[in-house]
């Protein structure tokens, strides 16, 4: 009885492991095998262990019995940190970039694209392979950090913060390398991007080495929230950047007829909510580590940085095709109300501008919530952080949102007009034209001012046409009247884009077009005859 049951249990376990093996990303398996067979990984791994052993031996011998009395833990940890930083920040992203470029040139990814593997699984497998390499380097250096923890001056909390930062920075840099490698197949541009990537990585690493060597080790920060809050914000920002770059890589490897934009837009919305949700949370710490003035000044910094980021992203969103492919239409929800709600997160030029407007309205709502929680803040007239209409002489929050709405709206109108007049233009050409138009609007007042200076007609007064440039606007103390004019112009730009937004929303309600009609047997035979090799056709005709 038991003998007959045992083979059934074994077969059940085998079938379970067979199914479990299918869950493992095959790209991850390939990347791990390829990494462990490469000479670069073996050389870097042995070099890391050798350098850590040399640091331990020479440091212990040179210090001697001073290890028992002085705080050498910070110095030893600083040296180990540099060795780990070089391995996971320089070696891992660099090898990931060139391996991906080689696969792009050899059309390996094109071969994978016709399999059941989607672009998301390919990118996730590549990043998981980089993560495994990073964890191997961490495992190699942990015994040396354990030795450092026995020395005087070692602080576990600070060490964990720095290790998490370097881990997050390595993940973000690896994702950046992967995103850059998917942008082009040209060897020339791959080489240029690779040189720029390695130059930036080496510059950051050498700056870190210089700072640690100059200070004699990692600095000894105060054990308070003034140190931990910025470090936690930095870690969150690095993971946010990694998420966004991952979506860019997935979009670059996705078919043109598929949905390339929704993943990026959803990721941007998640990052926006994560970024701005910290401001209302900080309001509850007013009176503790943060004052009301600190929160208001951070609100200005949040608004300006978000407006710049959305402005850059909008140049890409407004250049997308207006028509939705059949693949994208299958992803549209069937509920009529839900179609309207999710429209900003679907591809399309005017839907991209609507995406920007939704986030502008969300920012205004959060800023109003902060005013309700901690009250308005009126800065001195000489301060840059004068804020909101009627409080101070400068209004960076209002004018940054106005300029975002105006520039993104003008770019959307320009790309829609260009696509109507020149339907053969590609998305990259439309993005370039939108960028040139916006850049021309920003630089026009400065060029005109230079011409006035060359003609000897320059004066130090503010002219109305200077309002086109945010740099002129920021350098003058303008009152509420000019802010109202700029807001009125932004409202006109929104009104001009309403017809395009309405057409794009109505397009969401159109039914999915029917598939192509089935070809007749005679048409299929004619197609097969066209595809036949001439030699094979002659052999078939011969008796």
Number of DSSP strand runs: 0
CA-CA gap between termini: 66 Å
What is the percentage of strand-forming residues? under 5%
Number of helices: 20
Question: What's the helical proportion of residues?
Answer: over 70%
Topology:
Elements: H1 2-23, H2 26-37, H3 39-63, H4 73-105, H5 108-113, H6 119-149, H7 156-181, H8 187-215, H9 225-253, H10 262-283, H11 292-317, H12 326-329, H13 336-342, H14 349-374, H15 396-421, H16 427-454, H17 470-474, H18 480-507, H19 521-531, H20 534-541
Helix pairs in contact: 2-6, 3-4, 3-6, 4-6, 4-7, 4-8, 6-7, 6-9, 7-8, 7-9, 9-10, 10-11, 10-14, 11-14, 11-15, 14-15, 14-18, 15-16, 15-18
Q: Can I get a quick summary?
A:
This protein is mainly α and 543 residues long.
Quickly list its features.
single chain; 543 residues; mainly alpha; 20 helices; disordered C terminus
């Amino acid at each position: 009885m038991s003998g007959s049951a045992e083979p059934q249990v074994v077969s059940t376990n085998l079938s379970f492991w067979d199914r479990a093996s299918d869950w493992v990303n095959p790209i991850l398996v390939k990347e791990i095998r390829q990494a462990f067979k490469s000479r670069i990984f073996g050389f870097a791994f042995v070099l890391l262990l050798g350098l850590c052993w040399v640091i331990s031996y020479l440091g212990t011998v040179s210090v001697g019995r001073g290890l028992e009395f002085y705080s050498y833990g910070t110095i030893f940890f600083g040296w180990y940190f540099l060795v780990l930083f070089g391995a996971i920040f320089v070696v891992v992203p660099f090898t990931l970039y060139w391996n991906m470029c080689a696969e792009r040139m050899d059309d390996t990814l094109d071969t994978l694209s016709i399999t059941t593997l989607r672009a998301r699984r390919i990118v996730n497998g590549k990043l998981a392979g980089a993560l495994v390499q990073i964890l191997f380097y961490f495992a190699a250096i942990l015994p040396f950090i354990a030795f450092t923890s026995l020395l005087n001056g070692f602080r576990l909390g600070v060490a964990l913060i720095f290790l998490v930062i370097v881990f997050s920075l390595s993940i973000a840099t690896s994702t950046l390398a992967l995103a850059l490698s998917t942008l082009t197949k040209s060897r020339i541009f791959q080489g240029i991007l690779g040189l720029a990537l390695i130059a930036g990585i080496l510059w950051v690493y050498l700056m870190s080495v210089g700072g640690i060597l100059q200070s004699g080790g990692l600095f000894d920060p105060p054990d308070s929230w003034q140190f931990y809050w910025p470090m936690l914000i930095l870690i969150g920002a690095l993971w946010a950047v990694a998420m966004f770059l991952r979506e860019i890589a997935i979009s670059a490897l996705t078919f043109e007829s598929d949905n390339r934009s929704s993943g990026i837009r959803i990721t941007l919305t998640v990052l926006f909510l994560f970024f701005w949700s910290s401001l209302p949370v900080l309001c509850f710490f007013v009176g503790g580590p943060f004052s009301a003035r600190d929160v208001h000044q951070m609100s200005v910094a949040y608004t300006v940085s978000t407006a710049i980021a959305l402005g850059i992203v909008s140049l890409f969103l407004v250049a997308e095709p207006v028509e939705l492919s059949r693949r994208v239409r299958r992803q549209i929800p069937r509920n009529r109300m839900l179609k309207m709600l999710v429209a900003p997160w679907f591809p399309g030029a005017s839907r991209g501008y609507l995406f920007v407007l939704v986030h502008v309205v969300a920012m205004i709502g959060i800023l109003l919530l902060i005013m309700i929680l901690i009250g308005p803040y009126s800065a001195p007239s000489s301060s840059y952080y004068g804020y909101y209409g009627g409080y101070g002489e400068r209004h960076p929050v209002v004018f940054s949102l106005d300029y975002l709405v105006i520039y993104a709206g003008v770019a959307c109108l320009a790309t829609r007009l260009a696509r109507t007049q020149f339907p053969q233009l590609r998305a990259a050409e439309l993005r370039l034209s939108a960028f040139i138009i916006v850049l021309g609007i920003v630089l026009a007042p400065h060029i005109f001012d230079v011409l006035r200076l060359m003609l000897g007609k320059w004066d130090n007064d503010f002219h109305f046409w200077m309002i086109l440039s945010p740099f002129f606007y920021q350098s003058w103390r303008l009152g509420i009247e000019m802010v109202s004019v700029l807001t009125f112009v932004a409202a006109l730009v929104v009104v001009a884009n309403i017809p395009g937004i309405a057409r794009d929303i109505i397009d969401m309600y159109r039914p999915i077009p029917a598939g192509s009609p089935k070809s007749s047997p005679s048409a299929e035979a004619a197609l097969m005859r066209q595809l036949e090799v001439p030699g094979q056709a002659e052999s078939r005709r011969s008796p």
